[in-house]
Each structure stands twice: as C-alpha cells, then as structure tokens.
Specification:
- The complex is a heterodimer.
- Chain A is an alpha/beta fold.
- Chain A has 6 helices and 12 strands.
- The longest helix of chain A has 16 residues.
- In chain B, strand 1 and strand 2 form a beta hairpin.
- Chain B is globular and about 55 Å long.
- Classes of the chains: A alpha/beta, B alpha/beta.
- Chains A and B meet through helix 5 of A and helix 3, helix 5 and helix 6 of B.
- The structure holds adenosine-5'-diphosphate (ADP) and magnesium ion.
- The site of magnesium ion (MG) has 2 residues of chain B, from helix 2.
- Chain B: This is Phosphonate C-P lyase system protein PhnK.
- Chain B: GO terms for molecular function: ATP binding; ATP hydrolysis activity; lyase activity.
- Chain B: It comes from Meridianimarinicoccus aquatilis.
C-alpha cells in the first residue's frame, strides 16, 4: 500500500466525524470524559494512539504540526508521529512552538505561552483520575455524575501522611470550572498552571477509548488542602545550556563519576533562548 | 427540640423482600426513636441481613416504606433519587459490615479510612482531618502510631474497630450494623462490645443492630425484634423479651443461649 492510498490523515472520513463529535462534546462539557470508538492505528498503544486519532481528526491541509515527547521534538516517538502525518496528511511540520497550529504532546506543555487558535493534543495513558482508589468503572462514572470527589483528597491525604507533603509530581489532578475532576495526563505538576490557556486543549486516550477537552480560558484548579496548597515546584537550578530559570528541567547524567546537569526539557524553548544569545554554565555561545 | 422527640427517626412499614419464591423478610413494621438502639435477632437464615439491607437502601424491597426524618419530616427513602440516597449514606447514615474488609479501603491508611467521610463532605484542611482521625482512632483504642498503617496489617478486632471509627467520625444520625461482632474471637468480641456500649451511651447513637448473639443485644439494645423464617415473631423491650419471652420460638432461642 502506498501513501496516496490513505485517506487524508490516515483515518477515513466516517471515523474522523465520529471523533470530531466526541471532541465537540468534550469541549461543550469541559473535563468530562467522552467515550469514543478508538480505531486500530499502525503503532502500539503506548505510542499515543489516542492523541494520534485526535490529531488526525483535527488536522486540515494547511495546518503546521509540531510533535513533542517529554518536551523534545527529536525522540523516536515524536519523530515517528510527525513522519506519520507528513506521509499520510502531507502537512507542514515545525519544531517551533510559535509556528505550530497543532501540537501533539506526550508529558509536557510547551514553555512558550500558547495563543488563541492553537490546538494542543495530549496523549493520555489513563484518563480516569479516580482509578487509583476505585477500580470499578460503573462506580467512577457515578462519582463523576454526582460530583463525589472526596476520594481524590483521600489520595492527596495519603500522599502527605506518607511523605509529609503532596508527593504527586505528575498527572496531578485538577478540577475544571468547579465541576469535573480531570487527569491532565502525566505532565509534571509544574505545567499545571499552564492548563489555563488561550489555546484549545484536547486529550485522547486510545486504549481506554476516551476523549476530553478544555476550551480556551477554562478555569483549571489543582486540588490541594488549605494547609498544603498546590505547589508547582521546579528544581532550583538554571538550565545549564541556556540559563533559563523559568523552565522545567531534565536531569542529565554526564559521566560515570556521578556528574550531572540540568537542561530545559523543552528543546525548542532552549534552542530559541540560545539563538537569542542566552547561555548557561555549559552553553557554547 | 421537643418536636424531634415526638416523631420517630425511622418508620418502617410492611417491608417485604422475596428471592424468587423464597421469602427473605415479610411485612416488617416498626418505629425507631431518636437515641434508641433496636436489636434484630434470630437464627441464621431468618432474614435479618435481608431486612437490614432493605432498610439501609442496599437492596430494593418488593413492598413497604422506610421513612426517615429529613429536616423534621418523614420521607420515604425508597423514593429518594440516587444522588439523594448516596448523600444520605455519606452524611446521616452509616453502615458497619460484618466483614471489616467490606467496609474499609484496604489500600488506604487507617487515618485515611477515617478521614474519607470527612473529605466526602467537604473537609479540606489536612491538619484538622488528621486530628479528628487521631481522636477517633484513640476512641476505638487504636494506637496513634498505627495511624499511617494500612488495615491489612491489623488484626480482625482492630479492623472492626477501625470500621466503626470510620463510620462514626461524621456523627451519623442512624447507624446500621450487621453482626458487628461476628467472626471474631470471644475475647475480642467482649472488648468490641464494651467499646460499642461506651460509644452508644456517649454519643446517644440511634442504631439498628443485627445479630444472632443474644449477649450483644442484651448489652446494646433498648428494644428487640425476634425474626423467624423472614417474619417478626415478637418484639418489645430487650429485658422483657429476653426475661419473659412470649413466643415459643423466642423461648427456644433464649433457652439455647442459656445452655451455652
Ligand atoms: N442473595 C440471595 N439470594 C437468594 N436467597 C437469599 C439471598 N440472600 C438471602 N437469601 C435467603 O433469604 C433468607 C434470609 O437470609 P438472610 O437475610 O441472609 O438471613 P440472616 O441474615 O438472618 O442469616 C434465607 O433463606 C436465605 O437463604
Ligand atoms: Mg446475616
């Protein structure tokens, strides 16, 4: 089968319509998990088939697509998803956050603030934030329907009891517009404040067959206790290459002797800063 | 305040439940007054658990009404919407299961188990939740240093005491208990009974306690209903029923206990 035998963006129009209906419903009810009939995609589930289907249903020919994995455009996962859409949709691609009209992401929100008109598509492994304490799907649905969210705080309580502080660092639960409690996917809690955004945010879980969404400027509150308020903490270092003190950092082991350094996880952000002349301790100007 | 005393807390009328052709419980009626403990006794299979499940809204009866005092007026709880019923279960009602693991979250610490009901009704201050949980663990004689342990590490008696603390922490207006001392060693039972009696007195609890053990109702219940084959055969004040049983079945029940 050659590339031109695929429909635009791989999925057939029927399927895309079905997915778009789920997306629209998700946007109409922010934070609510909409079931959809997930399709087999030519990649394993762990590779973000939910996000890929949402992107496929959202793309139009003059879109410019950016794909990141843990903030980087050049990981195997990001590269292969980008190639997939270059091949099946023929869309332009970019690594620059500001140039992209659609950004598919796994585990990060770009550092560069998003703007109106952009769409951020998240790959979601486990969409149900209540799953940790309540394995029954029938029960979690009821809990969402009736706004019975006490269990989320039990989870945070357990965190503090065990670690002295809310140790949840990824997939930190949020409440959307005072209504649905939502799992923001495994982004670091550092990114949670960015969930209130001018961009449209779409979340796709392939294996669990759920889509949910945040329309622009939706209120998103990270759950916490009065005496243990939400803290989007960040490692207390500048980026070793670009000197940024406001970005999320990856720790990189540099040698066998325990040497390490901290680098921006957002490769585009780091690159833009370097291009603008910023340097860190390791930065070659 | 007198108005509250003039009206039962719970009014049960004609509650009937069949399992296919078999009778679970038939045509049960009684009133429970505020601060009163009602014991339901009878041998295994007499319909006690079925009745309790119907009263607590876990099992829909075929017929009958279960009216509960909501803001001063008696409302048929069987007609409540599901959100209303679930709300009742989180706030005014509590249910202590025979097997603690049915009523506990085994993957959550003891403190978290007790705190859950507080958080379910909106508590959002960790320190306050924790100190209330600590207070309740103390009241059910669970050492403070076990607060962050999971109930899987607890003995059967401790698990049952934890389940009781978890249920009572929000001060429910009505507590349902199904064989709360069942399945425990005799010495453990005695300690639990003692504790329950203390709590009932201190808190002025209104409760319905199902048991096959007459010693339990002797200690805890103000009034007694005796069930046989799904029917109530005798009811009255506990001491009266136990000391001067009128129905032949009750006489048998009482005498068999005396032989033990
Ligand atoms: N789920 C069920 N399905 C069918 N029959 C049941 C069920 N539960 C109880 N029964 C029957 O209903 C009667 C009353 O049982 P139950 O309420 O459990 O009695 P008790 O609690 O007094 O031991 C018994 O005959 C029992 O076999
Ligand atoms: Mg029983």
């Amino acid at each position: 089968m050659t590339a031109d035998q695929y429909n635009f963006a791989y999925l057939d129009e029927q399927t895309k319509r079905m997915i778009r209906r789920a997306i629209l419903k998700g946007l109409a009810v922010p934070g609510y998990q909409v079931p959809f009939a997930s399709r087999e995609m030519p990649m394993p589930y762990g590779w973000g088939t939910g996000g890929v289907q949402v992107t496929a249903a959202t793309l139009v020919p003059d879109d410019r697509l950016k794909v990141i994995d843990q903030g980087a455009d050049d990981t195997t996962n990001a590269v292969s998803i980008r190639k997939f859409f270059e091949r099946t949709a023929g869309v332009a691609v970019t690594e620059a956050t500001t140039e992209a009209s659609i950004i598919q992401t796994r585990h990060r929100i770009p550092e560069t603030p998003l703007r109106e008109g952009q769409i951020l598509v998240y790959q979601v492994p486990i969409p149900e934030p209540l799953r940790f304490l309540e394995p029954r799907e029938t029960e979690t649905r009821k809990m969402h329907a009736l706004e019975e969210y006490g269990l989320m705080h039990v989870k945070l309580y357990e965190d503090i009891a065990r670690h002295g502080t809310i140790a949840t660092a990824y997939a930190y639960p949020v409440q959307v517009e005072g209504r649905y409690v939502m799992d923001p996917s495994p982004i670091p809690k550092f990114d949670n404040p960015k969930l209130e955004s001018p961009a449209i945010q779409l979340f796709g879980a392939g294996r669990e067959q759920r889509i949910y969404a945040l329309p622009p400027y939706t209120q998103v509150v990270s759950l916490d206790f009065e005496d243990h308020p939400f803290d989007p903490s960040r490692a207390d270092y500048p980026c070793a290459v670009c000197g940024a003190v406001d970005s999320y950092l990856d720790e990189v082991i540099t040698d066998d002797a325990g040497g390490r350094m901290f680098l921006c996880s957002d490769t585009d952000y780091c690159g833009q800063r370097q291009a603008a002349g910023h340097t860190g301790t390791e930065g070659a100007p | 305040m007198t108005a509250a005393l003039e009206q039962p807390l719970l009014q049960v009328r004609g509650v009937t439940k069949h399992y296919g052709a078999r009778l679970g419980c038939g045509d049960v009626s009684f009133d429970l007054w505020p601060g009163e403990v009602m014991g339901i006794v009878g041998e295994s299979g007499s319909g006690k658990s079925t009745l309790l499940s119907c009263l607590a809204g876990h099992l829909p009866p075929d017929a009958g009404e279960v009216r509960f005092d909501v803001d001063g007026s008696l409302r048929d709880t069987l007609q409540l919407t599901e959100p209303e019923r679930r709300r009742l279960h989180r706030t005014d009602w509590a249910f202590v299961h025979q097997h603690a693991r049915d009523g506990l979250r085994m993957g959550v610490s003891a403190g978290g188990n007790v705190g859950e009901r507080l958080m379910a009704i909106g508590a959002r201050n960790y320190g306050e939740i924790r100190s209330q949980a600590a207070d309740w663990l103390n009241r059910v004689e669970i050492a403070a240093e076990r607060m962050d342990d999971r109930p899987t590490a607890f003995s059967g008696g401790m698990q049952q005491r934890l389940q009781i603390a978890r249920n009572l922490v929000t001060g429910p207006r009505l507590v349902f208990m199904d064989e709360p001392t069942g399945g425990l060693d005799v010495s453990v039972q005695a300690r639990l009974l003692d504790l329950l009696r203390g709590l009932v007195r201190e808190m002025g609890l209104s409760a319905i306690i199902v048991t096959h053990d007459l010693a339990v109702v002797r200690l805890l219940a103000d009034r007694l209903m005796v069930m046989k084959d799904g029917r109530v055969v005798e009811q009255g004040l506990t001491d009266q029923v136990l000391d001067d049983p009128q129905h032949g079945y009750t006489q048998l029940l009482v005498s068999s206990v005396l032989q033990v």
